Amino acid sequence: MRRYVLTGTPGSGKTSILHSLAALGHSVVEEAATAVIARAQARGEDEPWARTSFVDEVVALQRQRQLEATGDLQVFDRSPVCTHALAAYLERPVTTALAAELERITSEGVYEPQVLFVRNLGFCAPTAARRISFEESLVFEKIHEESYRAFGFEIVDIPAAELDHRVAAVNSMITGGGPSGRTPMA
């Protein structure tokens, strides 16, 4: 089983790429943090990320979704390494649950060693769940990259481009058409 992580700057188009991959027949797993935020906001909580339990809720949903995912090839919109980056960005400690999940995914080799890093588009449109400026998104992007490198992942850049080009680059990489460590579009 091969599990790829799609990550990068908030607002970079990861979800659009993920939906396009699903349309191509790939098994995809949506981002957990956005789901945790949406559920809390639907209950009337404006900023669930301010809650102490937020990181652990994201970790629990990521683990559940990873364990329930099907198919020989899976693409995940973010992973627990992203949650590590999120905790760092929010200036929160790494919780016991997050540390345990990071240990599990690294010791078990849950995800492929190449992480597909979707680069920013030069802007970051705010949403109910994403309330950061473009400048803040670049800081978050850097923290993500540092976290993935610290956990031994190889960054495969998916540069800013039209959606169909990015989808083709990711599809080529995950189906074996792109060489390891190089952007298939290069």
Give an overview in words.
It is built from 7 helices and 5 strands, in the order βαβααβααβαβα. Helices cover about 45% and strands about 15% of the residues. It is of the alpha/beta class and about 190 residues long. The radius of gyration is 16 Å and the shape is globular. It has helices spanning about 15-25, 30-40, 55-70, 80-90, 95-105, 135-150, 165-175, and strands at about 1-10, 25-30, 75, 115-120, 155-160. It has one domain (about 1-175): 3-Layer(aba) Sandwich (Rossmann fold), CATH 3.40.50.300. Strands 2-3-1-4-5 form a 5-stranded parallel sheet, sandwiched between helices. The longest helix is centred in the C-terminal third of the chain and has 17 residues, at about 135-150. The model is unreliable at about 180-185 (pLDDT under 50).
